[in-house]
Structures are given as structure tokens and as C-alpha cells.
Amino acid sequence: MRDVVSDIPIRFEQVRLLVRGVTILDNVSITLAAGATTVLIGPNGAGKSTLLRLAMGLARPTGGRITWGGRSDVPPQRRAIVFQRPTMLRRSAAANVSYALAAAGCARVTRPEQVADLLGLVGLRDLARRPARRLSGGEQQRLALARALANDPDVLFLDEPTASLDPAATKAIEDLIRTIAARGIKLVMATHDLGEARRLATEIVLMHRGRIVEHTDAAQFFSAPQTAEAAMFTAGELLV
Fold first, then answer.
1. What is the pTM of this model?
2. Where in the sequence is the domain holding 218, given as residue range(s)?
3. Nearest partner of 71 among 156, 157, 5, judged by Cα
4. Residue 212 maps to a domain
5. Alpha carbon distance 70, 5 (integer Å)
6. pLDDT per residue over 172-229, tens digit each?
7. Is the separation of the CB atoms in 119 and 146 below 8 Å?
8. 147 within a domain of the structure (yes/no)
9. Which of 20, 23, 65, 78 is least buried, going by the fewest C-beta atoms within 10 A?
């Protein structure tokens, strides 16, 4: 059963992040609400990954405020994140998921069934005994998704989840993202792939130089961008 208390919505209020005197995020204000699949796009160095890390609670802002479900300084018990290159534990695929379930506080007696369910969800049940580090890149990413779902999160952050994957592996991950979204889990994903953004996004957040340039419905963004930066980016012109 889900807790009554939720980490959604996540609100950034004039959030700034400086690292060694360099501005990484500059007065970012955004609300990440339930329902929509939010896709962050923008050139390298725009601040997409940094925004995800702050929303997850892996970093603290230099200025401004972040709240989760109206609360601040909330431990990430209802949040999960999958990175572009997830680290696999030196154990089987099933044991990787079992470890994540244990960390989430799931009872030992229920773990085998939950492991089977999660591996089935991501299409890895037949590879349950395979050492995780011997899986292909796409299989490892699907295993990382299974681990992330072990704590039944309210929100799942995805940082370039299909980067460097071949088309078949990319399609498998995108299909999983749609399945997860259909379960009511809030998805916030960073990608540099405009095609992927078109296929998956409900809303688009365009970032440039640490700022949010445009935040709008995905169909609106791609059919009639409202800013010069958005028009350039959708036209395939690199923002600098």
C-alpha cells in the first residue's frame, strides 16, 4: 500500500547552484506535478542532470528552496533515480533486485515473489541468475529500472536512460517508461534526443545555461515553440 504522504508535487523556488564560483543553475522555479511525464531537454551543460540530482535530494542548492509534497528536507524514501550508466552489484540480476527490496524495507518472506514480479515487468525473468555485470547495456538499464521500482516510488528520475543504446534496446526502455507512467508514477527524464522527447513527453522543459527557457505542453512545444531558443533547438541548431 502507498503511504498517504507523497513527495509530489516537487517545487523549486528561485533555486540556484554554484560550484567553485560557477553558476550551474540560475534562479530556477518549476513545479513537477503528478500525472505528466516531464522531459528535460537542452544542450550539454544546460543543467538537466543537476536539476534531477537536486530534485532527488542528492545535492543541496546554494540558494532558493525545494519542497517535496509541501515539505522541505525530506529523505528520498519516495523517490528513485536511474543514471545513464548504472552500477551493477557483483551478484545475479535477481540478487540485485532483492538487495534493493531489502534496502526499501520489504519483508524477507515476500522478496522472492517481488523479485520475480519486478524482473518480469522489465523482461528479465529468464536472466534472473545471470551475473548482472554480464548483461548487455540495455539489459543492465532494465535491471536498474527494476531496482528503482523496488521502493514503490512516487517519482522516478531518469538521466539519459537510452544514451549509447542500440535502437532495439532503446525501444525496450521507452516501452518500459510508458508502462511505468501508466502505473501512476511521476516520471522526470533528461534526454538530448528530440525524437525520444516527442515520443514520451507530456510536457517539455527546455533548459539553457542553467535556466528554464520554456516549460509547456509537449504538443505545443513542438508545433509552436514560444521562444527563439526553443525554435533553434527544435530545428536542430545547437544552443551555445
1. 0.93
2. 10-86+153-234
3. 5
4. yes
5. 10
6. 999 999 999 999 999 999 998 999 999 999 999 999 999 999 999 999 999 999 998 8
7. yes
8. no
9. 20
Kindly report the three-state secondary structure assignment for every residue of the chain: CCCCCCCCCEEEEEEEEEECCEEEEEEEEEEECCCCEEEEECCCCCCHHHHHHHHHCCCCCCEEEEEECCECCCCCCCEEEECCCCCCCCCEHHHHHHHHHHHCCCCHHHHHHHHHHHHHHCCCHHHCCCEHHHCCHHHHHHHHHHHHHHHCCCEEEEECCCCCCCHHHHHHHHHHHHHHHHCCCEEEEECCCHHHHHHHCCEEEEEECCEEEEEEEHHHHHHCCCCHHHHHHHCCCCCC
Distance CA 18, CA 67 (A): 19
| ∠ Cα 222 235 179 (to 5°) | 45
| CA neighbours closer than 13 Å in the CB half-sphere of residue 83 | 9
Residue 59 lies in a domain: yes
CA angle 156, 148, 75 (to 5 degrees): 70
* Domain-located, residue 20: yes
Question: How many domains, the chain?
Answer: 1
Tell me how crowded residue 125 is: count the other CB atoms within 10 A of its CB.
15
* Distance, CA of 204 to CA of 36 (rounded, Å): 10
